[in-house]
Amino acid sequence: MWGILFKEGNKFMTDRERFLNIMEFKSVDRYPNYELGVWGQAIDRWYSEGLPRDVCYWNWFEGEPYFGIDKRGFIPVKAGMIPGFDEETIEETERYIVFRDSIGRLRKAMKEGTVRGTRPSMDQYLDFPVKDKRSFEELKKGYNPYSPVRYPMWWDELAKLWRDRDYPLCLFVNGQIGFYWTLREWVGTENLSYMFYDDPSLVHEMLDFIADFITDVSTRALSDVQIDYFNFSEDLAGKSGPLISPKIYKEFFVPRVRRVIEHFKKFRVRYFWVDSDGNFEVLIPYMLEAGINCIWPLEQASGMDPVKLRKRYGKDLVLCGGIDKRELTKDKASIERELYSKIPYLLEQGGYIPHLDHTFPPDISYENFLYYMELKEKLLRGG
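The structure corresponding to this sequence follows.
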């Protein structure tokens, strides 16, 4: 449907070559076409509005041929607890379910409106597994980096395929590992906010443990395959700013992020991404100090303006995302204004991959989605 390669001179670029050139602010034959995914409710809406039911894989991080979304690869090393907690239902009514998940968190989830595993509202988190040093020591038992089942069963065969690939490759499936992300899962956002001040030594200990775990569990993959980039999944900000201060980030996070990056650089990995919703702009200088060189998805409702960020940080920072999903709920003129106000300038500056600032929600019609994709594709090809 879309996604035909264009020529630069007499040379066709592979998806991997194109990605690497973008990361280096170099020219490309066309710009990468990435998107993050779709709500289950949006999938059902689009089916009802004309999308054929037998054409999509719905794993957009790794590409979607029908819509011309380019291929990326993610090495599925398991970064979670092994074994995890036994999942159990604590309470269930017609409206909600209270359950303990595999990380040990107690959650309350609304049942109404859930489609294809996508709930229309976030779960309420009632309890967390780490409350003190003793509970952390118990949790650590599930994070043996050398457990053989962390790697795919047919690792050697997969590694051979990845060595001969023509697409970019990232270690870990998206959303698996990060520093703030992991602390939040273990302790909870509110509890963690207190812990930075009430028990900083425990936070330091947990962050050192996470850094050691990432480096230890990654070394086999780094030794066997040339990986193109590593993504820190963090989600450390809200609409009005980060959930931690610059001082906290600099003291607690920068040394551990830098340590992980230095380890990866020994294996010739050059690109390090941070994935966070919300506005974390005040933390960017410290991320750069630690070695981060790409941020995404640049949530527009929180004010992460990609044009402003490009003008401020120049070629120090690759930007991905930044297209306001709210504009796609309106008319075609709104979609045009959104894309033309950002994409031409940012592509001209280099180091930018345009995509929606999160997954596609159900208030975007299939017609508007198609128009967005067609117009974006035109701009990616220099139109």
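The first helix runs from residue 15 to 23.
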